[in-house]
Amino acid sequence: MCIILLTNENYGTILMSTKIDLLYPYNKCWKSGYVVTNKENRKTLILVNNKDDRSSTQYARYLLSTKLGRFLSNDETVDHIDDDKTNDCIHNLQILTRAENIIKACKQPDMELICPTCNTIFYRSLTKLRGKKDKAKNNMVACSRICGGKLGHITRTNNI
Prior knowledge:
five-stranded antiparallel beta sheet, 9 strands, about 25% helix
C-alpha cells in the first residue's frame, strides 16, 4: 500500500487516499483502487480504469464482495452489526436486504433526553433526531411544542 494525493476536479479539494491491490471480483473490472476516508471517518473505495472511467463503492461493500467472491446485488446492503459505520472489520459486516436494513434501523433504541425548559425526561427515536443530534448532545431538544416555543424564545432573546 502507498499513500497518494488525489485532486478532486469537481470540488477543487485534495483527498488523501491509500492505493490498494484490488481483489476478485473487482480486479476483473478495474485497474486500481484508492481507499478514501470522509469527514465522518467512513471509507469509500474509488475504482479507476482511466481518468474518464471511474466509479466508487463503500469499502465495507468491497470487503464483503471479495470475501464472497462475487459482486453484491442491488437489493443486498452491507450492515455493520455493531452499528459503528467506521468499524469495517469483516466480522462486523453482514448482508441484509434493503427491507431488512430498514427494519433494523427502525428498531434502534430511543435516546433519553431531558427537556431544557421543564426538566422532564423524555425519549425520541434516532430517526426523529436526524439533523438535530448536535442539539440533542447540547440538551437543546424540547419535549413538546409548547416547551419548544419557550426554548426558541429564550434562545432568541439570549442571542440578541
